[in-house]
Design a protein that fits this description.
This protein is about 40% helix and about 15% strand. It has about 325 residues and is an alpha/beta fold. It has one domain: Aldolase class I (TIM Barrel, Alpha-Beta Barrel), CATH 3.20.20. It has an eight-stranded parallel β-barrel with strand order 3-4-6-7-8-9-12-13, surrounded by six helices. Strands 1-2 form a two-stranded antiparallel sheet. It has a two-stranded antiparallel ribbon with strand order 10-11. The chain binds flavin mononucleotide. Flavin mononucleotide (FMN) binds next to strand 6 and helix 9.
């Protein structure tokens, strides 16, 4: 009998499948469905600082009285936070799976107090989604400095595990993850997928791009999971972005992940896919004589294969020069 239990960021999960932060994790009823379907843990929909600020701004514009504006600001913040805290409390009361709160932040000041309240409400961990796009107005190290200062602050604020959901294209990713680990970061998620945009060439407008990932997006996730896992000692990683099948889950674990976060596949195939994935991973483990996840975790990461440079292969030229024939 195989055992799918895994550990991530100090949490014990019954299996390596985690529901990623999204609209599928924003209510008790949806989370109960995920729980019933067998998910190992959930990351709640993010509390967006941006949302709070925009909403506040709009309402304050309709008020002529500065005192009223102060009141509205305070009320809106409390309302968002209170609803979020209620969700954590109710999920903790009605489900047995670990609950990870998610904060989308880009300034130190606002969310620090949210984090304390989130911990007090019973969240098992906090996932930090540092959302910051450098379109050229910031210096070269701005983004990296932000990650570091935010993690430093959060580690001082809460005792529950702190997980960082990384953006892609971070320059020296293993270097940054190493620094975050040294500051006490308990786990890393590779990667956050940003909102995609497009251009409508008839209306001459910027529009929304594809909402969901596709299976091809997993290749970059896999590459960096293997490299970071091999480069940063004892780092806990979850694969996110492009995980669409049970095979992706096994590949991610072989590359060094403790598990995977699922989002697009849950939207597209429904929560039933979780049970199928669990069964298929169990069967694969049985067929390959693995009893536990730890028996094959990291077996093919950057540090454990004979030619780690295979993970650094990026140019097509040498290997696919005959492709057109
Ligand atoms: C509709 C939707 C809403 C999302 N909302 C959030 C969010 O609130 N916070 C967050 O960190 N990620 C959010 N994400 C990103 C997902 O958590 C996940 O990182 C991303 O979709 C990549 O995983 P996938 O390839 O399995 O879809 C959202 C994704 C989708 C599709």
């Amino acid at each position: 009998m195989v055992n799918l239990q895994t550990t991530f960021a100090g949490l014990t999960l019954k299996n390596p499948f985690i529901a990623a932060s999204s609209g599928l994790t924003n209510s008790l009823s949806k989370i109960k469905e995920l729980d019933k379907a067998g998910i190992g843990a959930v990351v709640l929909k993010s509390l967006f600082e941006e949302q709070i600020e925009n909403h506040t701004e709009k309402l304050t514009q309709i008020s002529d009285y500065p005192e009223a504006a102060d009141y509205i600001n305070a009320y809106i913040q409390m309302n968002h936070v209170e609803k979020y805290l209620d969700l954590i409390r109710s999920v903790k009361a009605e489900c047995t799976i670990p609950v990870v709160a998610s904060i989308n932040c880009y300034k130190l000041t606002r969310w620090t107090d949210f984090a304390k309240s989130i911990e007090a409400a019973g969240a098992d961990a906090i996932e930090l989604n540092v959302f910051l796009l450098n379109a050229g107005e910031y210096g070269d190290t701005y983004l990296e400095d932000s990650y570091i200062s935010i993690v430093k602050q959060l580690k001082k604020t809460v005792k529950i595990p702190v997980v960082v959901k990384m953006a892609k294209n971070m320059g020296n990713l293993p270097g940054l993850v190493g620094k975050l680990k040294a500051l006490g970061t308990d786990g890393i998620v590779l990667f956050n997928r940003f909102y995609q945009l497009d251009i409508d060439i008839n209306k001459m407008e910027i529009t929304a791009g594809t909402v969901f990932s596709n299976p091809a997006d997993f290749h970059e996730t896999l590459r960096w999971t293997a490299i970071v896992s091999g480069r940063v000692k004892e780092i806990d990683i979850l694969c996110s972005t492009g995980v669409h099948s049970w095979e992706d889950t096994i590949k991610g674990i072989l590359a060094g992940a403790s598990g995977v976060q699922l989002c697009s596949v849950l939207y597209e195939q429904g929560v039933e896919v979780i049970g199928n994935m669990i069964t298929c991973v169990e069967e694969w483990m049985e067929q390959n004589n693995y009893e536990r996840i730890s028996d094959f975790k990291g077996k093919l990461n950057y540090a454990n294969i004979a030619s780690p440079s295979l993970y650094e292969r990026v140019q097509f030229m040498k290997y696919f020069s005959n492709y057109q024939q």
